UniProtKB/TrEMBL annotation:
SUPFAM superfamilies: AraD/HMP-PK domain-like (SSF53639), lambda repressor-like DNA-binding domains (SSF47413). This is Transcription regulator ThiR. Signal peptide: none annotated. It comes from the Archaea. Residues 20-48 form the HTH cro/C1-type domain. Transmembrane segments: none annotated. Gene3D superfamilies: Class II aldolase/adducin N-terminal domain, lambda repressor-like DNA-binding domains. InterPro entries: Aldolase_II/adducin_N_sf, Cro/C1-type_HTH, Lambda_DNA-bd_dom_sf, ThiN. GO terms for molecular function: DNA binding. PANTHER family: HTH CRO_C1-TYPE DOMAIN-CONTAINING PROTEIN (PTHR40730:SF5), TRANSCRIPTIONAL REGULATOR PROTEIN-LIKE PROTEIN (PTHR40730). PROSITE patterns: HTH_CROC1.
Length: 300
């Protein structure tokens, strides 16, 4: 794991300081004056001047870096710019170069290839970045899966088609924004089997149920399916959860539950008792994957 701040310290700062030290020296400042302005030792300035500090060519060649160096160098040399302003200008530049597709972000992605899996523009230190949001969802599903895996007897709740535990991003538009277990959670000789680590876009059925419920007015972020039994529904109701039945209309279609959820947007449990070629299923809705897993554990 490599932090973007490490990239800044190892690649950006030595290059930026070398360029700025050279710029200030060209403007007639002594090594002592340059050292004072940059907050480094004179020996460090000497190393910059003699090329003893490794310069990253990608950073040095960026037009915005060179423009900032020239502007800051001119300001510091003339006294028109304070050290605080120079610091702010450099920090702003770092943030700009940390956006997806910019030089610092590219260097970070090269050091952390897993970041390449994420599409679109993002900054890893942005609290609302896609990376952070999606990784939090994956982490939440992992916690929920662990609860199920260690819940004694959960395998008895797994339907023939298998279970899945899913959670979506806050602004989910489709199954690609819903994380779940690849291949579903299975009952293998009375043991709960988790075939793989959670991923986005791997659940079609349970993810579609969650998305349909949200589209119809539910605030749920997570969903878990278990096998249907009248006693299970009764037990969930006795625990204080609102359970609503829907008709699968001859197929396991998420569309069939939309009208029911519109009438009961606060429902915690949706269930159907089966039909021709359709296995009866209970779906529990919750704010998070761990919360949905805890609902199932209450049944054991």
């Amino acid at each position: 794991m490599k932090f973007i701040e490490e990239v800044v310290v190892e690649e950006f700062l030595p290059t930026f300081r070398s360029l700025l030290a050279a710029d200030l020296r060209e403007r007639g400042l002594t090594q002592h004056e340059v050292a004072d302005l940059l907050g480094v030792s004179q020996s460090a300035v000497s190393k910059y001047a003699h090329g003893e500090v490794t310069v990253n060519d990608a950073v040095a060649g960026d037009e915005r870096v060179r423009e900032t160096v020239e502007r800051v160098g001119e300001g510091l040399a003339s006294g028109d710019m304070s050290q605080v302003q120079a610091l702010v200008e450099a920090e702003v530049l770092i943030r700009r170069l940390s956006a997806r597709g910019d030089v610092v972000a590219d260097l970070h992605e090269a050091a952390m290839p897993a970041l390449a899996e994420y599409d679109g523009d993002f900054r890893v230190h942005d609290p609302e970045s896609e990376v952070r949001v999606r990784e939090r969802v994956l982490s939440s599903v992992r916690r929920g899966v662990r609860i199920l895996e260690h819940a004694s007897g959960f395998a008895t709740l797994i339907p023939a088609v298998g279970s899945n535990l899913v959670e979506c991003t806050p602004d989910a538009d489709g199954v690609e924004d819903v994380a779940g277990v690849p291949g579903r959670i299975l009952d293998v000789m009375g043991r709960t089997e988790i075939p793989a680590d959670p991923e986005f876009g791997v659940s079609v059925h349970v993810a579609s149920v969650l998305l349909a419920a949200r589209d119809a007015g539910s605030d749920a972020r997570a969903c878990l399916n278990v096998h249907y039994d009248p006693d299970i529904v009764e037990e969930l109701e006795s625990l204080g959860y609102e359970a609503v039945e829907f008709d699968p209309e001859g197929e396991a279609s998420a569309d069939a539950l939309r009208p029911v959820v519109r009438d009961h947007p606060e429902a915690d449990v949706l269930y159907q008792t089966g039909g021709f070629g359709v296995e009866p299923i209970v779906y529990v809705l919750a704010d998070s994957a761990p919360a949905a897993a805890e609902m199932a554990r209450e049944l054991l």
